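Table S2 (continued). Query chain:
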Amino acid sequence: MPNETNAAADAGGNHIEPEVATNVYAVHGADPEVLAYGMAKYSRSTLSLRESLAELNEQKAEKFLNTFYFQYGHRSIADLAHLAFAVEKLSILAATVVVDEPRWDGQERSTRYQDFQKSGYFVPDFGDDEAARKLYRETVDSLFAEYRHFSEEMFRYLQERTPKPAEMKQNEYERTLKARAFDLSRYLLPLATNTSLGQIVSARTLENQVSRLLSDTHGEVRRIGGLLKQAAREDAFNVNRSVASELAEQIGSECPALAGRAQQVLLRDVKVAPTLMKYAEPNAYEAETRRELTVAAAELLTDEPIEPAPLVDLLDDEPLDVELATTLLYQYSFHSYRQIRGVVASINDARRGEIVELGLRHRGRHDEVARTYCSGQKFRFDILMDIGGFRDMHRHRRCVQVVQEYTTRHGFDRPDDIESAGLSLRYDAAMTRAQSSAAQLAARNAGGADEQSQYVIPLAYRKRALFKMDLAEAIYISELRTGPAGHFSYRNVAYAMYEAVAARYPELAKYFRVTDVREPVDLLKR
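Corresponding output:
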């Protein structure tokens, strides 16, 4: 164990002040809540973390957390407990809601490197409406058939135009081109498509996430919120089980007691956050705010036709009350930020103030202020891009993101290579059929039909999202996402962001190390 002090004396026997040795060590093996308790004690005890953990147990941790976390609202304690979860077999639609946390770390299945033909898809509850269920299944099955067809056709097309270099292995060549083909065929995947994700989050983020999911309008999302809460409070998957069995077998005959002890330690059941998650419930603040702002947006915008908008719009500076009111309405409409701002600017100060107040009226004692109040950033981009590309941009969580619902109202994107391959008519027909089915399902209005209809929307359709950021993040996204190995969709968005900044602030353009997306791309480089 490292020494914390080193006393010494000089040649004359005079005392020298002890040298303080900084002590740094990693910690492994403590239960998440116990570790959070041990670290939280730093502010209330002189004990080292080793000493704190040595005296702790689950009962002490629970008592401490009940006192300081729930009674005193010391939510920062939950930031000290980090938890790993797998969420498998959920729809792409639900996945985008699950990961919509500013403080989220994780990974989702890639549409570039995995074939989604065998993923299956989610079917929402249609109650007794068998006609709606039949239409839904026929539509999604058709889109999956088209996804399979386009994956094969685009792979052949890319092979024809991209010869294999002599030095490149055949399997690497085919794997690379298949990934590029999936970049094109993914546009046919519906939001119902099953995916999987893994996340590592703090207990505080998990509590916020579960509460938000339990308050969502989609039944699937609410169910996932309940499953996450349950997973945090029940026995976790223990990766040491195979190791424990192997150890017990190796040493069991020679030392049964040691083998038993090894199994006892390695196979101990662990609940990752049984205390911190017990009060995670649906968030009334979020639900009531959504209801009232939806009404407010409808009152002001229903008669306003949705005007055409560019891929990326760098917004102008404006008074804070205008920004807040516009942002609050933005998430519950399908109009562009600029169009909503025009309406907001035309109403009187009192009405704008009422809208701003709506977003805070139902805030409870421990509710964080809604994300829409994160305002004042210099660089705000209103982006209208295909859903598939949005999923990639959605990963930039240093941004403040305010997103609108899925819809077919903005039309769809068609990759240039699909047109070059002579597949435009078939592609457009698939999109038109999906749009028609979504409209029919929404019109049936049976038990949340609007939410049900969103699942049949393919990733080709456009989605609007507001990204607010500082200069550093604008540079980072522009540089990272214009790289030649990236997907052409978000490359275009990132380059448009750079161009917008360069046009408004020419003196800043030289600091962006972007790749010109107009230059030809070597499809075999990754």
